[in-house]
Amino acid sequence: MMRTYSAGRVHTGDGRVFAPGKVMVDGQGTILSAATAAGESWDPDYLGEGTVLCPGFINAHTHLELSWMHGRIEKGLGLDHFIRSVAALRREIPVEAIRQAAMQSALNEMLVSGTVAAGDIANGLSGLELKREKEIRWHTFIELFGSHEGEAEDHFRRGMELRAAFRDMGDSSLVPHAPYSVSVPLLDRILAQAGAEQAILSMHHQENPAETEYYLHGSGPVALRLEDMGIPLPPAFPAGRRPLEFILSRMPVARRLLLVHNTYATAEDMEAARGSATPLSWVLCPRANLYIEGRLPDVELLMQKGAEIALGTDSLASNDDLSMVQEMKVLQAHFPWLTLDTLIPWATLHGARALGMEQELGSLQPGKRPGLLCLDGIVDGRIGAGTRIRRLG
Ligand SMILES: [Zn+2]
Q1: In this structure, is residue 316 part of a structural domain?
Q2: 108 Cα: distance to centroid of ligand 1 (angstroms)
Q3: How many Å apart are CA 375 and CA 379, to the nearest integer?
Q4: 253: exposed, middle or buried (Cβ count in 10 Å: 0-12, 13-18, 19+)
């Protein structure tokens, strides 16, 4: 059955705004049209003042697997402390039932808060069964670590095995954890695979200044960690280049790369990106950045440099919940000039493009089935304490 909804504003996700606007969908949730409306209070389809219609949210970066670590890591102590805490907690491994229950509740939270697709990092099999949940479309990033050059082939093979297990759970690809936590042979193996399969790549990027120090000078906490593990400084280091520049020079042609966090990304990184043939998605996880490092990326500079920005929540190990609206709200609180006109495309179409799902999701384009959300309680274009989300389709 066809339905029409009209609201104070309609944000289509691709940058168009109708105020007031209306959206027509069929019984399967396929968009039939989005257009200007009269917005009269007598109109039975009118959802009222302060309502916004938009497509379902795309969470470009999360780690369902880490859901059970919710509230277990102290805030504001930096990335090094965070990584050590995650590693220590991993050794603790709770009973599988606790792990599964935490993931199930995280998944419910994602659904209730309007998420329709997610880029989810997996290091193991624990999230596998949950991904039978087809209300969310998944791209599973099988994440590899491994600083020892001689072990690159083993890490890669284990990654391919893990990935085979996720075969029926949506899209998937093998990705490096971060520029500093994979050896060059392992990085090259992953990149070659992405080239062969036309796969999407993702990595944590500029979450901490140590990454750049290691690349430019071969020193700092990353070099010390290698020393602790008894691994000599690899021949390629110091690379004398920033991590992004180094990785872009090795990328397979025209494969998309998601850069996650970018808390310490500089104008040089953004310039290097502009000169490259690699399509990049700069994925911001603002609440996780505040949780771990107590700072945010230079959003204004990213915008000036033409970066395509998408949003993610990261995991419950470094966040209070997995709601995309809360990420937008925090961005508005820190950058008051950010309007929903800008933020909604980041949370929808840009995320869909990051995950290669823009044909079906991310905008209220006729023919797509992107999910339809109603945000209530938007005052002067701002997300506030009273903002609520309803899924309409
Ligand atoms: Zn992450």
Answers
A1: yes
A2: 20
A3: 11
A4: exposed
Domain extent, residue 78, equals 57-322
353, part of any domain: no
Ligand 1: centre distance to CA 370 (Å): 25
Q: Does residue 365 sit within a domain?
A: no
Please enumerate in sequence order all residues whose Cβ is within 8 A of that of 169, keeping only pairs 6 or more positions apart, or say none.
128, 131, 132, 138, 140
Q: Calculate how far, in angstroms, residue 341's C-alpha sits from the geometric centre of ligand 1.
A: 26
Q: Could you tell me the distance, in angstroms and rounded to a whole number, from the CA of residue 143 to the centre of ligand 1?
A: 10
Find the 332 Cα to ligand 1 centroid distance in Å: 22
> What's the CATH code of the domain at 119?
3.20.20.140
In Å, how far are 138, 259, 275, 314, 350 from 60, measured between CA atoms?
Answer: 10, 10, 24, 9, 9
The answer to whether 206 and 236 are in contact (CB under 8 A) is: no
CA of 258 to the centre of ligand 1 (A): 11
CA of 56 to the centre of ligand 1 (A): 22
Residue 275 belongs to some domain of the structure: yes
- pLDDT for position 211: 95
Q: What is the pLDDT of residues 334-376, one digit of tens each?
A: 999 999 999 999 999 999 999 999 999 999 999 999 999 999 9
- Ligand 1 mean position, distance from CA 358 (Å): 22
- Radius of gyration in angstroms for the set of CA atoms belonging to the chain, rounded to a whole number: 21
Instruction: Give tens-digit pLDDT for 173-225.
Output: 999 999 999 999 999 999 999 999 999 999 999 999 999 999 999 999 999 98
Count of domains in the chain? Answer: 1
Ligand 1 centroid to Cα of residue 49, in Å, is: 37
